[in-house]
Design brief:
single chain; 6-stranded antiparallel beta sheet; 3 helices
Length: 200
């Protein structure tokens, strides 16, 4: 399992994301994030032990409102060929040295392990603790062919409401918890697998 190094990262993840988020088409703010904060997430292990995989939820309180963003991240010790467009930035890790940090949607290692999570072949790991499973993360797939299924990352997740039915048209999802700025814990879906049969 992945080892979490409690050390420095310069610039920090939040500093990198604060510069990167406003350029994304799904960013809801009108300028730089005013107060970006870590809100939750989890990790997956790379079987080869080379790539760090993290699904991070952050909250932005810019413009007087709180918005949650979900950013899958990968951390590599060398550039990922052909993925310069997905590079969030570079940082210096206190133990591992130079790291290239990518929007993980474009990293084949992350996407392969995400399919394994949906398939039930791997278990989510705690975001900040080594060798510790996170049982609050749930992956579910009820379709027939996950290898060809489209995986949709929910970039602006919303808390699920128990009194409102979940939308139909999906055959899989990844659900996890995160925290709002007031400290309350919420739960919602971070990844969806649409039922393409209903879209054709």
């Amino acid at each position: 399992m992945a080892v979490i190094h409690h050390t420095t990262l310069t610039p920090t993840k939040l500093e990198l994301l604060a510069a990167w988020l406003p350029a994304q088409p799904w960013y809801a703010g009108s300028g730089q994030p005013a107060a970006l904060a870590r809100a939750g997430g989890f990790r997956l292990d790379d079987p080869a032990g080379e790539v760090g995989i993290e699904f991070m939820v952050v909250t932005d309180s810019a413009d007087g409102a709180s918005v949650s963003y979900h950013v899958p991240l990968t951390y590599r010790g060398a550039p990922l060929p052909g993925a310069h467009h997905a590079l969030i930035g570079q940082a210096e890790h206190g133990v591992l040295g130079r790291r290239w940090i990518y929007d993980g949607v474009h990293d084949p290692v992350l996407m392969a392990q995400l399919r394994e999570l949906l398939r039930g072949g791997v278990q989510a790991q705690a975001q900040s603790v080594s060798d510790t499973a996170d049982p609050t993360v749930v992956g579910c797939f009820t379709g027939t062919d996950l290898s060809e299924a489209e995986l949709r990352i929910v970039r602006r997740p919303e808390p699920s409401r128990g009194d409102v039915p979940e939308p139909g048209g999906t055959v899989g999802y990844v659900e996890a918890t995160w925290h709002l700025p007031d400290g309350s814990e919420v739960r919602g879906r971070l990844v969806l697998v649409p039922d393409t049969a209903l879209e054709n």
